[in-house]
Amino acid sequence: MIKTLQIWLAIFVIVSLYFYGLDHFIMSVQGLPLNMDLTPAQ
Question: pTM value?
């Protein structure tokens, strides 16, 4: 049970980091700087 929970938690973290990095990459390609909370910097 605990092992399964750890696996799901690890998958969730990896996927979250992947999408966060992908969003940063797309925004930087478009020339839009980002703040840490993924809002466009002014």
Answer: 0.60
